[in-house]
Write a structure and sequence with these properties.
By secondary structure, the protein is α/β, with parallel strands linked by helices. The protein is 38% helix and 13% strand.
């Protein structure tokens, strides 16, 4: 059983196709591990009976689909027919959808086996996963007194704790990268327009995209390939690299131009202090890439006007959540505040922010144009204790989230691909860096991250049961 849990998704997929493994055995191992690590809050719902039935059907049929027989879990923002979908909220705690969202159906058609729902913050609005109602609090497997980040906290914990090799997630301001970096796994936010489902093109602000969380860079590439194939590639209007991406992780890339920066676009708006462990990880990643023959230089980047812009976009994204006045009485204070603020936005303010976002996108792409990869810290602080975020004062809570993860949301506004990967250890806990690519440049950051991963060497697993 433990041998199965240690296998990569790439190896599991190959063994299932060769009939050397049975999906039922792999799913049984994942379910057992989920039960062992229940206290970490990775799951809000485990659908063991349905998962085993689905795995048995996979074993009885010829392999068909890139994820054939592999266990995954849906983030609890994705509706699956017949399974409670709570959105991390008391306002949805009794919702059992009769139809699945397109992503859930597409993952089924790709052959995956869902074992349940991973925990998320309320409606995915925060960078920590500690919902007051409708879900579980995701805890860092390295130290369960600390949170796992968010909003895809449950997915990151499920991967870090050895339940899953890969997990689907979403990222509207760092919701893949923040928890992945917090618990020391790999998280990839694709370019806007890269994927057919969760492309970022289906909302005016264009922030939220679907992406993979995985144990290794190769597994993240493998899952990205699968996600790209869930529907025709016609949605990928901005992509310059085409699938498959997995081969890019198997060989060292040619010499790259790597720009390094610890500048955050929030520096003019909120006091940002980058922890020494994050600085050390950034320096080590730069040193390793330079030793591999890449040209590593400081990236001169001084963004302006970002804070007010993102505040408007964040409010606007919350305004579309379908909550009634009664719902707003029972959701968390931050959610109610965001929704009310978003719905009160003047149309001229919103349109101005959307126009300013495109200016910021062009300026950021232009500033990063001299580099194939831009290297930044993944997080500015060490994992925060459970209960650290202010649940009453929305402005203070917002500032705390920015201070923890000031290098995340601007990548969404610019529509760029970004990946976090652990590089060093501090006090026994992994510390990650972020690699940002050009529009559509997933292959380059995957290749660079895989090389960094190889040269870094193996890291320990968290001390969970």
């Amino acid at each position: 059983m433990s041998e199965l849990l240690g296998m990569s998704a790439v190896d599991v997929a190959a063994a299932l196709r060769r009939r050397e493994l049975r999906s039922v055995k792999v799913v049984e191992a994942a379910l057992a591990r989920a039960a062992e690590t229940r206290a970490l809050g990775a799951f809000v719902e485990v659908t063991a009976e349905h998962a085993l039935e689905q795995a048995a059907r996979r074993d009885a049929a010829p392999p068909d689909g890139p994820l054939w027989g592999i266990p995954i879990a849906d983030k609890d923002l994705v509706a699956r027919a017949g399974v409670p979908t709570r959105y991390g909220s008391r306002a949805r705690e009794n919702v059992v959808p009769v139809a699945s969202d397109p992503l859930a159906g597409a993952l089924d058609r790709a052959g995956a086996v869902s074992i349940g729902k991973t925990s998320t913050s309320e409606f995915g609005l925060t960078g920590f996963t500690e919902p007051v109602g409708g879900g579980a609090w995701a805890r860092d497997p390295w130290d369960p007194a600390h949170g796992a980040g968010g909003s895809s906290g449950g997915a990151a914990v499920a991967v870090a704790a050895g339940v899953l090799a890969i997990a689907p997630a979403s990222d509207g301001g760092g919701s893949i990268r923040i928890p992945a970096a917090t618990v020391g796994v790999v998280g990839l936010k694709p370019s806007r327009g890269r994927l057919p489902l969760g492309s970022g093109l289906d909302a005016p602000e264009g922030l939220a995209v679907t992406g993979p969380i995985a144990r290794t860079v190769a597994d993240a590439a493998f899952f990205l390939d699968a996600l790209c194939g869930l529907a025709p590639y016609g949605f990928s209007v901005r992509a310059v690299d085409s699938p498959p991406f997995l081969p890019a992780t198997l060989a060292d890339p040619p010499p790259l131009r790597v720009g390094v920066t610890a500048v955050s676009p929030w520096d003019d708006d909120i006091e940002i202090d980058v922890d020494p462990a994050a600085v050390d990880a950034l320096s080590e990643a730069a040193r390793v890439l330079a030793s591999a023959g890449h040209e590593v230089t400081d990236a001169a980047w001084r963004p302006h006007r970002y804070g007010p812009l993102f505040r408007v976009l964040w409010r606007a994204s919350a305004a579309r959540i379908p909550l009634t006045d009664d719902d707003l009485q029972i959701v968390e204070p931050l959610t109610a505040w965001l929704v009310r603020e978003g719905r009160a936005l003047d149309a001229r303010v919103l349109l101005g922010a959307l126009a300013e976002a495109r200016v910021f996108e062009r300026e950021t792409i232009g500033a990063f144009a001299p580099y194939d990869v831009v290297l930044t810290p993944a997080l500015a602080q060490t994992p925060r204790p459970i209960g650290w975020y202010d649940r009453i004062d929305p402005e203070r809570c917002f500032a705390q989230q920015v201070q923890y993860a000031p290098f995340s949301s601007f990548v969404n506004v610019a529509g760029l691909p970004a990946l976090v990967v652990p590089v060093t250890l501090s006090g026994g806990h992994p510390v990650s860096v972020q690699l940002i690519g050009r529009p559509g440049g997933e292959r380059t950051i995957l290749a660079a991250a895989a090389q960094l991963e190889r040269l870094r060497g193996p890291l320990p697993h968290p001390p969970v049961p």
